[in-house]
Amino acid sequence: MSPDVSHVMKVAARPSIVMVEGRGSWIWDADGRRYLDFVQGWAVNCLGHSPAVVVDALEAQARRLINASPAFYNEPMAKLAAILAEASGLGEVFLCNSGAEANEGAIKLARKWGARHRGGAFEIVTMEHAFHGRTLATMSASGKPGWDRLFEPKVAGFPKVPLGDLEAVRRAITPRTAAVMLEPIQGEAGVLMASDAWLRDLRQLTREAGVLLIADEIQTGIGRTGRLFGYEHAGIEPDIMTLGKGLGGGVPIAALVASASASCFEYGDQGGTFNGAPLMAAVGCAVLEAVRAPGFLGAVTATGEYLAGRLRALSAELGHGEVRGRGLLLALALRDRDAGKVVQAALDRGLLINAPRPDSLRFMPALNVSAAEIGEMIETLDGVLTRMGAARCVA
Ligand SMILES: Cc1ncc(COP(=O)(O)O)c(C=O)c1O
Question: What is the pTM for the complete model shown?
């Protein structure tokens, strides 16, 4: 029987089901119903539900040291920072608890850098439709339609430009500008991609203008696009990167990663009680070891191409639109604006997918999802879309 949920603060429209157990690509509710999960904690469970890698790391670290306090270094904190520094080529890592907190840190770091190295520059140029989190500053940095009127007054200093418009970025950069910040793929906006060529031009422009480039890799990082970090496809390196979601394989850990020249916090500028706690950092190390194991990222690319191919074939058959994205962060454009209804109908048939906008479905399965599970997902989605199309014809 489902527990009483009446005391849970109502911050999101949720179905009445209560999830109790997960394994790989599957999750079960309190009534014993099984769902095929192509949302995976919002692109978080990169190795699926409760993978041995995460469970074992949690168990081993919990027996050794759960929290040392942020006043001390600890082993997993040092190890994870070293892995991320080596993998990114960016020298310094601040571990924290959520994507929004990592981005808030990136904003503070860019402002500190602007104050020190660019005559007090504090503005950060961000992209229309961007999503950077739900703290006051990260909401202000985001370009989500409707958010401009929420929780006034906004944190100032985030001029917005369209993703992919280099001239607009050039115009927006002034002596007040400290940085340009973007997601290589705007996941929450509906999987909208910045082209690799544009990212290279943007990197050059920010270098020439003497401002920082911040890559929000919270959704695209940790193998989601088939490379460890999404910006690698363009062959560029940002000055600051933020990570979250997949870094913990399901547990809350995030990171602010910065080049030695961008990293200018002084003691007391940044911190937090749980930051770099050994329990979560140990999981981050274990997840990275799995994602960086030989062949893993190649398999993500191959699986992503397979899923994209199956979605394209289904779309062509049923008269829907394009498939966008990279690796295992994909969206299918629908003919009509009823993505929310498709998600509900899919849920009723035991499939979890997401509608980031009314005309698109998003797919962010575990990075180790199998071809058979993709086949099963396509079959269910086919049934849902066919049924809805038929219902529309009859009506
Ligand atoms: C690109 C991006 N940045 C930041 C965030 C915020 O992360 P969190 O929800 O962990 O605060 C998200 C979450 O969806 C995201 O997709």
Answer: 0.97
